[in-house]
Specification:
With 274 residues, this protein is α+β, with helices and mostly antiparallel strands. It folds into two domains: 216 residues, 2-Layer Sandwich (BirA Bifunctional Protein, domain 2), CATH 3.30.930; 44 residues, SH3 type barrels (Roll), CATH 2.30.30.100. The chain is built from six helices and twelve strands. The strands form two sheets. Strands 1-2-3-7-6-5-4 form a seven-stranded mixed sheet, sandwiched between helices. A five-stranded antiparallel sheet has the order 11-10-9-8-12, with no helix packed on it. The longest helix is centred in the last third of the chain and has 20 residues. The termini are far apart.
Amino acid sequence: MTTFAVPTVREAVAGTRFTDVRWVAETGSTNADLLALAADGGGEGVVLGADHQTAGRGRRGRTWEAPPDAAVLVSVLLRPPAPAVDLVTPAVAVAAAAAVEAVVGVAPGVKWPNDLVVGGRKLAGVLAEASWPPGADIASGWAASGEGTRVPVVVGMGLNVLSSGRAPELDGVAIACDELGGRPTTREDLVAAWLVALDRWYGRAVDPAGRDELWAEWRRRSATLGQRVRVDLGVDDLEGEAVDITPGGQLVVRTLEGDLRTLAVGDVTHLRPA
């Protein structure tokens, strides 16, 4: 049986789109579970968390591992209009940073494309998975997807809360809320604050008039912009300065040769100034 106090969170998020909060002791992947629910017609706003995941998923086929009860492992089912799909990850990351700041009292930075970091160490990761309908431009390459096309998107977050039980190889790489030097917290406090903040920032993402505000907040919280970075593109690396983010979420890097490169994917390493 899970020890997570679901009623406490439901009470805290009353009035938001995220009142359908569900929690289990263990599952393979909350993202996978909600993708299955979406395929069965599940509605927007379902929240599923777990005390422990046996097959947690990260970007580029990686896994997310955490001891039971030591992290927030939670996913939400969204159905944004097609032009807002690429805004889901930044909305979730901004909301997570705001939640940690509000609850713990320490503001993490948002590292492109999907991490929260403090002092160069990873506090949280975000993974969004979209299920594009047949005929959508992302699936077929030809049909435009407008504001009227709703796309099921499941976005999951793993947020380190307790450092106890962490794998030794993650020392110096990961960081948890109890190491930030701020106020003590619980998973319930963090989940509730995140969902309240996400209701606001996801609302900006799905409203064309609110998207500039979302990107302004992302830039304000960015740990990447203005940094010298190395981007792993899979087949080679790109080094330069991260100078901007596009309206679609791509990172703009000024290379060492002075060219501007716009990157949709890649793993970023923050480098020390030369």
